[in-house]
Amino acid sequence: MSIRDNFKSAKKQYEKWGISVEDAFEKVKKVPVSIHCWQGDDIGGFEVNQQELSGGIDVTGNYPGKATTPEELRSDLEKALSLIPGKHRINLHAIYAETEGEVVDRDALEPKHFQNWVDWAKEHELGLDFNPTLFSHPMAEDGLTLAHPDKEVRDFWIRHCIQSRKIAAYFGKELGTQALTNIWIPDGYKDIPSDRLTPRQRLKDSLDEIFSVEINESHNVDAVESKLFGIGSEAYVVGSHEFYMGYALKNNKLCLLDTGHYHPTEMVSNKISAMLLYSDKLALHVSRPVRWDSDHVVIFDDELREIGLEIVRNNALDKVMIGLDFFDASINRVAAWTIGTRNMIKALLYASLLPNEKLKELQEKGNFTDRLALMEEFKTYPFGAIWDYYCEMQGVPVQENWLDEVKTYEQSVLAKREA
Ligand SMILES: C[C@H](O)[C@H](O)[C@@H](O)C(=O)CO
Ligand SMILES: [Mn+2]
Known about the structure:
CATH architecture: Alpha-Beta Barrel
CATH topology: TIM Barrel
Function: Catalyzes the interconversion of L-rhamnose and L-rhamnulose.
Number of helices: 14
Distance between the termini: 44 Å
Radius of gyration: 22 Å
Strand order of the largest sheet: 4-6-8-9-10
Binding site for Mn(2+): 261, 293, 295
Cofactor: Mn(2+)
Number of domains: 1
Bound molecules: the ligand C[C@H](O)[C@H](O)[C@@H](O)C(=O)CO, manganese (II) ion
Structural class: alpha/beta
Keywords: Cytoplasm, Isomerase, Manganese, Metal-binding, Rhamnose metabolism
Shape: globular
Number of strands: 10
Largest sheet: 5 strands, parallel
Order of helices and strands: HHEHEHEHEEHEEHEHEHEHHHHH
Family: Belongs to the rhamnose isomerase family.
CATH superfamily: Divalent-metal-dependent TIM barrel enzymes
């Protein structure tokens, strides 16, 4: 049977429940996923004085073919994008600036240092998002940045964040699509602090200073990303969830929830509806923590499906800004992007093909037997045939056929790069 024949027969099964597959396609097709550039080079970046990765995050693996220039990274992204259905965004970190061999410190970065990215994004009709990089830098050596006791250090990072927002606003203006600037800082302590309040007070003051600079909101929106712990900040993280949730609500900023930044049994899917009751928008870093914030490639697992469901059934596709954040250097990096991003989109399509209204109704009536039965049965509905047809319609490889393209790219491009 052809992809189309499989699709036609699968579609009938969903239609039994009044589910329009075409409507689901239309809905999902419009959702941009912000694809993080840093999977392509293990968060190395292109600074002239490149520093070791710091900030309590780690990339493991040494798969050959890592991008070492902006051109290589963009070429790898293009390859991945050609295998992913839909139109998406690319998420940059400040360390991906191109300064033509000149040493430009982070607090002096300007939009012009990202002009190549903007030109490339225009050419490929992509939106761009941005992150100031408050790690892998001598000024972040002791693991403290915006909450540092030394005002000179704080001021340096405040300037960097202000510049970052200006860069993102430039992206938004040039590309005609609002950029998201997400601030994540590593600040914390390895061991039990004797004062939790003072660093948090300093972080609050630093953020106030950063956001006191007015930026055109139609070009840029700001988010703050919390974390539970990192390597070297096991006992205390200044920017905890409660800290940023309070800050974001009070100051009209977006909370960014990274799925790897909570206690292992605490699920981001369970937070979305609660947070959307109090803020119009929310941002995500979809990742896969394996026992810790390990940033494994996103797979089509229970939590990803649940995140998709929470976004879809609460009509929040335009309220939740979906970004990815994983980095695996033990596998082909183009494949990593392709797997993780296809899975994210797959989860949204899966969620759009559930009888969500009926399931809500069953819950309201207290009919938990039917609710569970249907939710379980739908897991083995012929979703694969629908997904395959969606990929075909979107002009990207069906099933694992994309892997052949990655292998060809590996042989013809990645394998020729210097180790
Ligand atoms: C590159 C990092 O993953 C990113 O800046 C941050 O979002 C994070 O999740 C740190 O754990
Ligand atoms: Mn993150």
